[in-house]
Amino acid sequence: MKEIKIGLIGFGTIGTGVAKLLQANAGLIADKVGAMVTLKKIADLDVTTDRGIELPPGTLTSNVADVLDDPEISVVIELIGGYEPAKSFVLRAINNGKHVVTANKALLALHGEEIYPAAAAKGVQVLFEAAVGGGIPVISAILGNMAANNFTTVLGILNGTCNYILTRMTQEGADFGDVLKTAQELGYAEADPTFDIEGVDTAHKLALLVSLCFGTKVDFNAIHTEGISSISSADIGFARDFGYKIKLLAIGKRTGDTVEARVHPTMIPVNYPLADVDGVFNAIRFTGDFIGPVMFYGRGAGMDPTASAVVGDVIEIARNIIAGVSRRCAPLGYRDEAVTTLALKPMGEIEGKYYLRFSAVDKPGVLAKISGALGKYDISIESMIQKGRSAGESVPIVIMTHEAREKDIRAALEEIDTFELISEKSRFIRIEDNLE
């Protein structure tokens, strides 16, 4: 039986999972591919730590060239993450005529426009199923079964750390800082959780999804990105009162030749399927012109689910090698010349409903002043809650608006925050309650 040899760069949690899976299911993979898929070399700076797996002598190396420059290795798996040296390693593998599998969403979000043409020039594949949603087969579905659809929306809960924190805050009334500390203790959050809690990790994934769904290049730095560190237990409680949950949502929408790409805390109705995605789970929801709304759900991270996605990409490439074909599908699913650059809609022009929270001194006329300022900017009120009365003290006033433009919301709040009766900076959260 033919043998296809693999090289792995990065022997951390996911790399260990990949090695274990390739060993444990070697016979199954051979039956499905028609060839033995063998892990020949693993490159990592640490070649002494016990990962709980027995490897053939000579498999581990601290010299990445043993993977990148070995003519017997057909596929290189990159699992070190980050921008450099991952980018240099990937481009070197491609230049040497090797196919690449990666889980590195940050690398592709920022440098895909350099990596994809390099792969095309060499006639090799770059696959990255594990970069979005861990073991959830999202990308293969976009490129395969759903490829005939024009997509209008893609929405996702794409970061398990943030979803775990918001779930605990919602279910227990806990404060953000306390839940973050617990998440770190449980291993759900990094020691430095900035990329997760500030939405950067989610934005990396959204950049890939928008490119795949809408066939457009995306400037990652132009994606509006907010995290969850400013969400309070008060916001969670008021959302519940209005029939909503707060989720960190990745939102991509296409209207004509314009695309929205934004990441921010979002209120969604409690009876929507996305609202039931709790804990460390992820979900991605698409709307296509023929397939309609479709949602994928599962674990978005972890050793085993992510290893499953990585090895799935390896199997796809191995099958193509056996069949004598290469680059049957471009990385984004479109012919290279068909990928466009659609205009990104400015956040100020986004229209939707908004949750507004004010901290105002409890005195006569304060509501009239707030509503007057909102009306000045064509913002109409749908409903309102004022909890508690304490004459002369600050109390929360919460307003849900009808459809409004974001730049009008921001202008109104900037004016309202100058009022003497307003004691704290006003807060707003966007609402998505029409997901069709």
Give the SSE layout.
Layout: E1 3-9, H1 13-24, H2 26-33, E2 36-43, E3 60-61, H3 65-68, E4 73-78, H4 86-95, E5 99-102, H5 105-122, E6 126-127, H6 138-143, E7 151-157, H7 160-172, H8 176-186, H9 194-197, H10 200-214, E8 224-225, H11 233-241, E9 244-255, E10 258-269, E11 281-288, E12 292-299, H12 303-323, E13 343-344, E14 351-361, H13 366-376, E15 381-386, E16 394-401, E17 404-405, H14 406-416, E18 427-431
Parallel strand pairs: 1-2, 1-4, 2-3, 4-5, 5-6, 8-10, 10-13, 10-18
Antiparallel strand pairs: 7-9, 7-11, 9-10, 11-12, 14-16, 14-17, 14-18, 15-16
Helix pairs in contact: 1-12, 4-5, 5-10, 7-8, 13-14
Plain-language structure description:
- With 436 residues, the protein is α/β, with parallel strands linked by helices.
- The protein has three domains: 3-134 and 303-335, Rossmann fold; 140-299, Dihydrodipicolinate Reductase, domain 2 (2-Layer Sandwich), CATH 3.30.360.10; 347-431, ACT domain (Alpha-Beta Plaits, 2-Layer Sandwich).
- Helix content is 35%, strand content 26%.
- It is built from 14 helices and 18 strands.
- Strands 7, 8, 9, 10, 11, 12, 13, 14, 15, 16, 17 and 18 form a twelve-stranded mixed sheet that branches. It has a six-stranded parallel sheet with strand order 3-2-1-4-5-6, with helices on both faces.
- Strand 9 and strand 10 form a beta hairpin.
- Helix 1 packs across helix 12 and helix 5 (105-122) runs parallel beside helix 10 (200-214).
- The relative contact order is 0.13.
- The model has no long low-confidence stretch (mean pLDDT 93).
